[in-house]
Structures are given as structure tokens and as C-alpha cells.
Here is the input.
Amino acid sequence: GTLKEVYMKLSISILQVEQVTQSYVDWYSNEEVVRYSDNQYRKFSFDGQCSYVENCLQNDDVNLYGIFDDTTHIGNIVISGLSSHHRKAELTYVIGETNYWGKGVASYAIANIIQIAKEEFDLNKLYAGIASGNIGSGKALEKNGFVIEGTRKQHLFYGGNFFDAIDYGLLLNG
Here is the structure.
């Protein structure tokens, strides 16, 4: 079988404070991981990530899910805006362990969140924004039925270059 079938046992679950590891914190000091993210402008620490996870657990508007391969934490996917009167929420995600890139992990996590958005939260719409250079992220959204709703020209500045912000949306009720 493929690498995916043989080695990956993927799941997502609400991230708990005791699941914060130094490896997780270290994702954000990897230039590849933060290349198309505002996280490149932030400072990360173990205590800071523990506080972030705790804040997400307390916040009814946000669900932070860890993405796991068996017991290994390899990424996060966040759904925010859950209390919106407009029944829409935003998706953000990171696959922090770069050896998992290109293996369908983000697509898997997005597919799971779509189900949760429909079944648990009765949302009408999910949306996500990416930088124009972030090809993998766009592919993961498109595989899950997201469509480009708009482009904001030279809206983001990463690594000394301007990128367009590409807005994706998915209507959950057809």
C-alpha cells in the first residue's frame, strides 16, 4: 500500500493543555511552517502555548483540534466564530510536522471539521483565507469543495514579499 495507508492513523480531537509538547512549540520557529502565516511575527513559548490552549478550551467561540497520527501531535485545525449570528465560522490550520506535508493530512482534517460544522454546530458556511503562494493549503481546501470567493491583491507581506490573500468559502447546505 501507499505510505498513507501503512503509516498513518489519523484523528482529530480537542487539544488539551497536557498535550502541549516542546515539539509543538518548535513548529513556530520553523521558517517553512510559518512561511505564509502571521505566526512568523509572533514569539512562542511552552507556557504561552499552554495558555493559548487553555484559553481556547474556555472560549465558546473557538474549538482548537489537534491533528494526531496515532498519539503523535502533527498539526492543529481551529474553527472560530462558532457563536456568530451569521452561522459561519473560519478555519485555520497548520501541519507542524513537515514530514507529513503532501500526504493529505490537511485535507483529512478539513473534511472532519466540515462534518463537525454541520452536525455539531449547524453552520451554513465555512471560510478560510490563504496567501497566494501557499499552494498546498489551497489544494486541501479545493479537495473539500471550497471555492475561491475573492482575491485581495498584495494584501499580505511575508519573507520580504507581498502575496495576494485568497478567500475561500464552502456553503454547507448546497
